[in-house]
Amino acid sequence: MKKWFLGLLTLTGLVVAFPTLINANVLAEEDQFFRHVKVSKPQVEYQIEGKARVFEGTYHYRVKDGKETVVQGWGTASAGGPEWGDFKQTIQIPKSKSAMKKNLKLELFEESAKDGSEVNKLVVPLKAGSTGKKNAAFKNIRIDEPKVKYRVSGEARVYEGTYHFAVSDGHDYLVEGWGTASMGAPEWGKFKETIDIPLKEMPVNGTLIMELFEISMKDGQRVHQYEVVLDQTPWK
């Protein structure tokens, strides 16, 4: 009798202390409706635009966290110097301790055709908005609100291939939407989904959960829900 009572207390303790573990076991139906769900490593994405007056339209960029280079690359404006050309540049920063920092710097420059040295360098904060900074080679720099991108893939066996999803930080839903798998039930269909979360809405310390589910044709309620951990913060 005592052993049974102690066992019950232990089980109860597990339910309270590890709700996510118990919840994962409750989802015994997961292989019937969603399976092989994979989440790619996230990236922080910035969209930069402005005007450049550089040799043959070629410019270079570098993102720095203090003295450390986080990412670098190059792009081409719509016209080469001495004309001003428009440019749009997507910068993706892989998951790292630096990626979510708010004090990153963006360097824009061109390389000297004579000796390859960096010339006409413009340094601006890597944050959303327009900057009044300019030099002989760069002006009208504007940065869109950054977002964190996740790519999710898997298989679903749902009515007419239609599934729904929602991403929660444990308190609020940050993203909600729906998609269509390559085939409808009773067949397994493949699906791919890109999840964009504004960087400013990312939790400082927490877990992002993606919920995959169907909507009941009978009463509009969620059915066949499957949960997967999308990410955990802070990034290391």
Automatic annotation (TrEMBL):
<feature type="signal peptide">
    <location>
        <begin position="1"/>
        <end position="28"/>
    </location>
</feature>
<feature type="domain" description="Bacterial spore germination immunoglobulin-like">
    <location>
        <begin position="149"/>
        <end position="220"/>
    </location>
</feature>
<keyword id="KW-0732">Signal</keyword>
<protein>
    <recommendedName>
        <fullName>Bacterial spore germination immunoglobulin-like domain-containing protein</fullName>
    </recommendedName>
</protein>
<dbReference type="InterPro" id="IPR018911">
    <property type="entry name" value="Gmad2_Ig-like_dom"/>
</dbReference>
<dbReference type="Pfam" id="PF10648">
    <property type="entry name" value="Gmad2"/>
</dbReference>
<feature type="domain" description="Bacterial spore germination immunoglobulin-like">
    <location>
        <begin position="45"/>
        <end position="117"/>
    </location>
</feature>
